[in-house]
Amino acid sequence: MRLLIVSGSQRKRSQSAKVAGYLAEKIEGFDQVDHIELCQYQLPFWDGDTLTGKDAELWDSLRQRSQQSDALILITPEWGGMASPLIRNFLLMSSLEDTAHKPVMLVSVVSGINGAYPIAELRMNALKNLKLVPVPDHLIVRNVGECLNGNEVNGKRDQQLRQRIDYHLHMLHQYAQALLPLRHSYQHSPHPQQADFAYGM
After folding, report:
1. pTM of the prediction?
2. Where are the domains of the chain?
3. CB under 8 Å, gap of 24 or more: what pairs does 97-100 form?
4. Which of 39, 74, 148, 170 is least surrounded by Cβ atoms within 10 Å, i.e. has the fewest?
5. What residues does the NADPH-dependent FMN reductase-like domain cover (predicted)?
């Protein structure tokens, strides 16, 4: 089984990428863990038109990694109470063929004490047309500069966060296993009107 982690900060050497690295080290049960750090790529912003040339080649290479995954983790910084433009753009460019009926764990990263709004935003309006299945256990990494810094635990809150992460990653793997037969049925035994109802209401 394959896990894809997508970190959506527009800054290089970001705290979102740090969290992605920590999660990748702690994950168990998946045979392969892949990490796409969106700021490392010059993806065009989605405008509804078909991509051509180098843009199409770049996106095809990224979407293949998404297609091959059995579960996803989407990590976004909170900026102005919102998810990052890069994570939204990634989702707009994705399609059902890449994501349908795969579990996704949502992660918000914030330097302060907030972080709930990007989770609510993504749950509310970013996943329905992709048929991604958000697992109940989202993660908010608050005061991110003070935690998940290597193997040295920085106090009780950092320890509790690490324990919560272990549980969340365990459950994500359980959801990935549970949804495998559903995806197989979706792909190989489609409903007669499946194409007519490709998108959620």
Report:
1. 0.95
2. 2-48+59-187
3. 97/67, 98/63, 98/66, 98/67, 98/130, 99/66, 99/72, 99/130, 99/131, 99/132, 100/130, 100/131, 100/132, 100/183, 100/186
4. 170
5. 1-142
